[in-house]
Write a structure and sequence with these properties.
There is one protein chain. The protein is an alpha/beta fold. The chain is built from 17 helices and 29 strands. The strands form seven sheets. It has a nine-stranded mixed sheet with strand order 2-1-12-11-13-14-15-16-17, sandwiched between helices. Strands 7-6-5-3-4-8 form a six-stranded parallel sheet, with helices on both faces. Strands 18-19-23-24 form a four-stranded antiparallel sheet, with no helix packed on it. β23 (about 390) and β24 (about 400) form a beta hairpin. The radius of gyration is 23 Å and the shape is globular. It starts with a helix and ends with a helix. The relative contact order is 0.09.
Length: about 500
């Protein structure tokens, strides 16, 4: 089978820039392609089989993209893992994915790396970016392998973890047989937006590569012959510096970064050159309308907004269309379609609020790994939902009404209320609890916990601090409630179901 487009670009011009590492190291195409090809051959030689999972636990780096290219080229499923997760959370993903190969960065530290080795019981091979005891170095895996692209029948794909009603994440599996066609359609879609192959394009990735959208953006940029600049921290001045230094032309940003950017003093903003930008897209969480207006005033009509999920890309909207309909997330991308259905599966007319169903533009029919019931529940014919509520206007523009009933979207990350509740209620001072997402200007949403304390406990600041300390030992920082409020009763029905909307409404009334 033919190689990935990136390898053809690398063969034609191996000295052209491929990646700028967060530390500033410049990787030409030839170097990145050689590592990716060597790793693909090496992983297969060491026993990795088509369709098996390769989990990567690493901060942003050029080697991350090389592993991604290697996994796809070798017909493997890449599982990007959030390296900020608490040990139990990370262990669940490694074990649930059945990863045959674990790739971890030396920057995680020996203690964390040892835990990963211990917890990833299904892994047959542990590979390190850099040096780590008990791991085989990535360079060693790639050493001595052919420099030419590997010949496989099917390309691999990313298998990201996303939301789950039980509080546990679930993996989105896309068919390998459609991988090449899906890639071609995605590249064609980008080209239809005016993003040309090569043409001096430089893509800036400011978010962690363990997020689906930033990883996909960087991967597609490489397939179109663009250079990729990687950042490793959400700093607005650093972002502006990178744009000017590398003459960045395209970027994917989360709304939290847009907020930080627009909050910079005017004289600071004027000190950076952003004229090289041609196409910027944001997504992953709701963006405040005033923030969007401010960034458009600053950068001009080059800022687009996309809506979708790891399961399927849904809509996109230009600056011009958004200004005419503030708050819209756009119309379906080519090959896709959007329907709004009620609880009975009946399609609603324009203006009707219901579940948003997306027809994947790639023609993929995904399933959730090890969760057939949840897979069946989200599909209706060729359309699938991830639980978002919205409405269409008369021209087919989508407006979101609720970002999933229970799910909290904080800085583009999925936070599951049930997981926080299940942990919090284990504390001896907690009888019952409920968690909801509250609007936050910077992060989109943050968790807030309502706690019914035990009779012998003393509700107040001291207990709240104790509960937060308890949670911080068991959950990653993004899942910690920004506030704990003590209540006398929680709104539950006779079956014990928590009425989150009532909790959210009460929290909003207190905040107003």
């Amino acid at each position: 089978m033919s190689a990935l487009p990136f390898h053809r670009f690398a063969e034609r011009d191996p000295e052209a820039l491929a990646v700028v590492d967060p530390c500033g190291e410049r990787w030409p195409r030839g170097r990145l392609a050689a590592l990716a090809n060597g790793a693909a051959h090496g992983l297969r030689a060491l026993g990795a089989r088509t369709g098996e999972a390769v989990a990567i636990v690493s901060p942003n780096c050029a080697e991350y993209l090389a592993v991604h290219l290697a996994a796809v080229s070798a017909g493997l499923r890449l599982v990007p893992v959030n390296w900020h997760l608490a040990r139990d959370e990370l262990a669940f993903v490694l074990e649930d994915s059945g990863a045959a190969v674990i790739v971890a960065h030396e920057r995680l530290g020996q203690r964390r790396l040892a835990q990963i080795r211990e917890d990833a019981r299904s892994a047959r091979l542990h590979v390190s970016i850099g040096r780590a005891p008990g791991y085989v170095g990535l360079a060693e895996v790639a050493a001595g392998a052919p420099r030419s692209p590997i010949d496989v029948t099917e390309l691999g794909r990313v298998m990201p973890y996303t939301s789950a009603t039980t509080g546990r994440p679930k993996a989105v599996c896309l068919p390998l047989g459609n991988a090449r066609a899906a890639l071609e359609k995605t590249i064609a879609w980008h080209a239809s937006l005016g993003i040309e192959p090569e043409a001096g394009n430089v893509h800036l990735c400011t978010s962690m590569l363990y997020h689906s959208a930033p990883l996909d953006g960087a991967f597609i940029a490489l397939q179109m012959g663009h250079a990729v600049v990687l950042a490793d921290r959400p700093d607005p001045r650093r972002l502006l510096e990178l744009i000017g230094r590398h003459r960045v032309t395209t970027a994917f940003l989360v709304p939290a970064m847009l907020v930080r950017l627009t909050k910079l003093p005017r004289h600071v903003r004027r000190g950076y050159a952003v004229s090289s930008l041609r196409f910027v897209v944001h997504g992953g969480a709701p963006c405040p309308i005033e923030t969007k207006r401010a960034i458009l005033d600053w950068w001009g009509p080059i800022v687009w907004e996309a809506y979708g999920a790891a399961e399927a890309q849904g809509t996109i909207v230009s600056a011009e269309d958004w200004l005419a309909r503030p708050g819209t997330v756009g119309r379906p991308i080519p090959g896709s379609a959007i329907r709004i259905l009620d609880d009975d599966g009946q399609e609603l007319p324009p203006g009707g609020e219901g579940l948003v169903y997306i027809k994947p533009h790639t023609g993929d029919r995904f399933h959730y790994h090890g969760a057939p019931a949840e897979t069946d529940a989200c599909w209706r014919g060729d359309f699938a939902t991830v639980g978002d509520v919205g409405r269409l206007d008369d021209e087919g523009f989508l407006f979101l009404c609720d970002r999933r009933t229970d799910l909290i979207l904080s800085s583009g990350m999925n936070v599951y209320p049930a997981e926080i509740e299940h942990t919090l209620v284990q504390h001896p001072a907690v009888v019952d609890c409920g968690v909801v997402g509250m609007p936050h200007e910077l992060f989109g949403q943050v968790p807030k916990a309502f706690v019914l304390a035990a009779a012998d406990a003393s509700p107040g600041p001291a207990l709240a601090a104790e509960l937060l300390a308890y949670l911080s030992e068991r959950l990653s920082p993004m899942k910690l409630p920004r506030r704990i409020e003590f209540v006398d009763v929680l709104p539950r029905d006779p079956n014990g179901k928590l009425h989150r909307r009532r909790l959210r409404r009460a929290a909003e009334e207190r905040a107003s």
